[in-house]
Design brief:
- The structure holds two protein chains of two kinds.
- Chain A has two domains: about 150 residues, P-loop containing nucleotide triphosphate hydrolases (Rossmann fold), CATH 3.40.50; about 70 residues, no CATH class.
- In chain A, helix 3 packs parallel to helix 5.
- The longest helix of chain A is centred in the middle third of the chain and has 14 residues.
- By secondary structure, chain A is an alpha/beta fold.
- By secondary structure, chain B is mostly helical.
- Chain B has a single domain, classed as MetI-like fold (Orthogonal Bundle).
- In chain B, helix 1 crosses helix 4, helix 4 packs antiparallel against helix 7 and helix 7 packs antiparallel against helix 10.
- The longest helix of chain B is centred in the first third of the chain and has 34 residues.
- The model of chain B has no long low-confidence stretch (mean pLDDT about 95).
- Classes of the chains: A alpha/beta, B mainly alpha.
- At the A-B interface, strand 6 and helix 3 of A face helix 5 and helix 6 of B.
- The complex binds adenosine-5'-diphosphate (ADP) and magnesium ion.
- The site of magnesium ion (MG) has 4 residues of chain A, from helix 1.
Chain lengths: ~240, ~210
Amino acid sequence: MAVHMKLHRVTRRYDGITALSEVDLEVKNGEVLTIIGPNGAGKTTLLRILALLDEPSSGEISYRGQRVDRSSVQEYRKRITMVFQRPVLFNDTVFENIAYGLRLRGLEGEEVAQRVNDALSSVMLDGFGSRPAKKLSGGEQQRVVLARALALEPELLLLDEPTANLDPTNAHIVERIIKNLRGRTTVVVATHNIFQARRLSDRVGCLLNGKIIDIDRPRNIFIKPKNEIIRKFARGEFF
Amino acid sequence: MSEQLLDIVLRSLWISGTALLLSLLWSLPLALILGLRRFRGRNTIISFFNAMLGVPTVALGLFLYLLFSRRGALGAFSLLYTPTAIMIGQAILITPILISLLTSAIEAVDPRIRDLARTLGASERQASLTILREARKGSILAGVSAFNRAIAELGIALMLGGNIEGLTRVMTTQIALGVNRGEIILSLEATLVLLAIVFTLTLIANRFRGD
Ligand SMILES: Nc1ncnc2c1ncn2[C@@H]1O[C@H](COP(=O)(O)OP(=O)(O)O)[C@@H](O)[C@H]1O
Ligand SMILES: [Mg+2]
């Protein structure tokens, strides 16, 4: 599989704390890659860097083989979208929340309405368009923000703990949507849920203290780990 | 409503409305910078405008009077006793209100909104506009508070306008000076209209703040 996005020796420091340490990562085209690791491992930081929302302190990023730099970052950012761990919504209707990014891409009128309605259908929220987004339940909000990301048809979708705050029913809906994207959209999911990683992933990356200590197919992480550390990690002993 | 009263009311609305727009010309960009950026001296600037909130209108009136009078630095423009003079005076008067309230409205927006806008494809500039849009309810409240302060003040209208009938007479100067001329009814009517305008706008603005 072709490489979609590549990090080369990426380090991210927050005054004093090294959140990511010389990370090398190749995200492959169309795969579902999950990043597992305990709280504070650096998952959110890694996703923000992949989303081009945050700049590495050092290291290089390339997108489909092209080096990403200051002058091109805005262009690449339009092809990627990130869904944050806790839903962030504009103080507006569900429709306007989803239409926002579409309008930024120059879409208008019927086309926007069509894409918004399709996106709402895909998260089973048909008819929710006119509701004030912030008045919805937590699970509904999480599905709206997912619909908002899906409506953009991004090349790369980044999901930060997409089911961490959801009840089992909503979590199931979200997982099914992720599975449906496999092969068409590149998806990177950060999670501290090992079972979810096993269910969803083409590959699993194990992140610990800002380093990717292993990245492989689920069976090579969970069933035949290459060493004792990965075995313990996959059992959640560092979590 | 008598023609005389209507004339005064419309002039008041026109002068203070223009003062609001004029003040927004500099207050809005400054509030955007103060609300969105973090830089050295920012807190000092915000404290300065908070301190300026309490400046008495007659103090500002006197200062501008000296500036606009024939011998003043801006005497050449013959602004004294014109509607323009009142507009400028009120625009300066409400600058601290606009900046303080607009800045807090922008600051109150969830800081994650900027990253949200960016990840949905917004440029930095578009993201800033989105933040302003999220602050719209607080911004309307800021505009209404500023307008109410302008239309209800007396010192500037009196000292810079001079209460000239048909030219600079506004509701507050009619209320204050009409009594001496025996125009008690007209002054009372002007008071009622002024109160009605201020209360109505405040009620509408608070409606907005509600949800
Ligand atoms: N904005 C920030 N400022 C300072 N430290 C941060 C910031 N974001 C993350 N960190 C630190 O970086 C480390 C990794 O955090 P994060 O990427 O959020 O981990 P995870 O998502 O795996 O829980 C933590 O020690 C965290 O405290
Ligand atoms: Mg996190």
